[in-house]
Amino acid sequence: MTVTRPAIGVMLRDWRRRRRLSQLELSIQADISTRHLSFLETGRSTPSRDMVLQLADRLDLALRERNRLLLAAGYAPVYSETPLDAPPMTAVRSAIRQVLGGHEPYPAVVVDRAWNLVDANESLSVLTDLVAPRLLVPPANALRVSLHPEGLAPHIVNLDEWRGHLLHRLSRQVEFSGDPELADLEEELRGYPGGETHGTGSAVDGIVVPVRVRRDCRVLNLFTTVATFGTPLDITLSELSIESFYPADEVTARELRNRRTPSARTA
């Protein structure tokens, strides 16, 4: 069975257009002539390994996509993809657990590039307790859990606003990455019932978009921050992000502080 790959020139042209760059703009950034870039895109010239990496850097491509460009040009990939449970990732796992544990009693979750749940702290149960168990079977998807009719969606007071915010984030990610898996996920989520605000879904008279979750006759008012690893050289590491939930008001903060986790009850 023969596996065919897209020509390197076609891939370079497609990524340049996705980044909304002209040949002139990219050639200036890459410090090459427009003529040379044109020859690369049309297949009249073959890029060197260093040229592939240089153009990939100027196009701000993910490490996974840089490997694909190298393969298309006939070169070996340079970026590894190490499983998170492998021995070389021991320090990374330790750092993740430290961040997750240190964020208690507020929820925090680690997801991969496709928004699949990789890890979480115990306080995430304040949200996942409201979700149908089948949606939490690995690989659980954080966006599906949020917007599915059997997930958090029925408990989110500002579902229109939150849905619009999440779909806007995902749409931008699809546009930037060109990832077909993410495109399929976006199509699935847009098919779920529920409203959607237009644009970014920014809260009126606010500074962040909160998610307001009704639980036990109370409304938890939360906002999130996202953290990634700096200067990663491994694909797995580059695609991990930690999303941390913070209380947006003192009532929510007090409610989360008073909620004892299983480990705290047995301590």
List how many beta strands DSSP finds.
Answer: 5
CATH architecture of the largest domain: 2-Layer Sandwich
- Sequence of strands across the biggest β-sheet: 2-1-5-4-3
Structural class: alpha+beta
Count up the helices.
13
> Uncertain runs with pLDDT below 50, 5 residues or more?
198-205, 263-267
Q: What is the CATH class name of the largest domain?
A: Alpha Beta
What's the quick description here?
The protein has 267 residues and is of the alpha+beta class.
Characterization of this structure:
This protein has 267 residues and is an alpha+beta fold. The protein has 13 helices and five strands. The protein has two domains: 8-72, 434 Repressor (Amino-terminal Domain), CATH 1.10.260; 87-266, Beta-Lactamase (2-Layer Sandwich), CATH 3.30.450. It has helices at 8-18, 23-30, 34-42, 49-58, 63-72, 90-102, 125-128, 142-147, 159-177, 180-190, 235-238, 250-258, 262-266, and strands at 108-111, 117-120, 211-215, 218-228, 241-247. It is elongated and about 65 Å long. One of its GO terms (molecular function) is DNA binding. Pfam families: HTH_31, MLTR_LBD. This is Helix-turn-helix protein. Residues 12-66 form the HTH cro/C1-type domain.
